Amino acid sequence: MSTIDGLGVEGQALKTRHRAMWALGDYPQVALDVIPDLGAGLVDAAGVRPGDRVLDVAAGSGNVAIPAALAGGRVVACDLTPEMFDAGAKQAAQRGAEVDWREGDAEALPFADGEFDVVLSCVGVMFAPHHQAAADELVRVCRAGGTIGLISWTPEGFVGQMLAAMRPFVAPPPSGAQPPTMWGDEGHIRSLFGSRVTALTTSRQMVTVDRFGSPAEFREYFKAYYGPTAAAYRGLADSPGRAAELDAALDGLARAGNRGAAGLTMDWEYLVVIATTQGG
Fold first, then answer.
1. What does the angle CA 67 – CA 24 – CA 251 come to, to the nearest 5 degrees?
2. How many domains does the chain have?
3. What are residue 53's DSSP bridge partners?
4. pTM over 0.70
5. Looking at residue 173, what DSSP letter applies?
6. Number of helices and strands (H, E) in the chain?
7. Domain range spanning residue 77?
8. How far is residue 42's CA from residue 22's CA, in Å, rounded to a whole number?
9. CA 118, 121, 126, 130 torsion: positive or negative?
10. Do 93 and 62 contact (CB within 8 A), yes or no?
């Protein structure tokens, strides 16, 4: 049964568009090239131990799932876009990690209540359009006294600014959908989880990205490999003037964020959230 079965027509259409967007380009390559260590950092922050039942939500190609398995966890990687699983399975095999790959929607996870000791997501669940539904699912599948750990891009950071820069060039989201970078706001996170978690801690951190030689190289890479950017340009295929405006917006953003003397060196801010579910 498809993860989008059972939704209304509008809900099915939205999930289908999200799945298609993330299947564009090559997100597994982006994760390897741009943020290869972010998942392992979340695994460390969440304190994954041998034998822990771990769920990686909106896992992509497993940038959390693979290091969690290498830390000794019994890991399930779940994503709405299973097209990314082949790349993840190859990476896992190369690194000697055992991961169970499952198709599933972050807003309706196909798992039992309290099935996992640790529930994690690295710049993944933040893209589920209905934030409260996704947060409710994270809590539901985590056992009492278990750990929820998240990494999300902040609204003020580079990726938050990039997504905002692309917004005028794409169709408006449907009613009820919320901006992904709200997950990078501490107040929003606390409102989503409320009293269902304890000891919720947050910290803002930076990842340094220095693999691009110029703003144009950065822009062309994201146009080719990153689903949201690729989808934006695909929608502008018949509007070359608008596409040129988006080129200029992304180039300007990269120049403004550059701190390197040669090439392009950028610091991208993200929020780390670690919380314990009530009842343990």
1. 90
2. 1
3. 74
4. yes
5. P
6. 11, 7
7. 9-277
8. 22
9. negative
10. no
Strand, helix or coil at 70? helix
Place of tokens 């501490």: 186
Dihedral angle, C-alpha 52, 93, 208, 274, nearest 10 °: -10
The reply to whether 242 falls in a domain is: yes
Does the pLDDT of residue 3 top 80, yes or no? Answer: no
pLDDT at residue 4, rounded to an integer: 38
- Residue 98 lies inside a defined structural domain of this protein: yes
Question: Is 28 domain-assigned?
Answer: yes
Tell me the pLDDT tens digit for each residue of 177-233: 999 999 999 999 999 999 999 999 999 999 999 999 999 999 999 999 999 999 999
Instruction: Give the relative orientation of helices 215-225 and 227-235 as an angle to the nearest 10 degrees.
Output: 90
Residue ranges in the chain assigned as alpha helix (H): 9-23, 27-34, 38-46, 65-70, 85-95, 131-141, 158-166, 186-193, 215-225, 227-235, 240-257
- What is the spatial order of strands in the sheet that 266-277 belongs to? 99-103, 74-79, 53-57, 116-122, 142-153, 266-277, 197-209
Alpha-carbon span 22 to 98, nearest angstrom: 24
Look at residue 6 and tell me whether its pLDDT is greater than 70.
Answer: no
Burial of 237 (0-12, 13-18, 19+ CB in 10 A): exposed
CATH number at residue 111: 3.40.50.150
Residue 37 lies inside a defined structural domain of this protein: yes
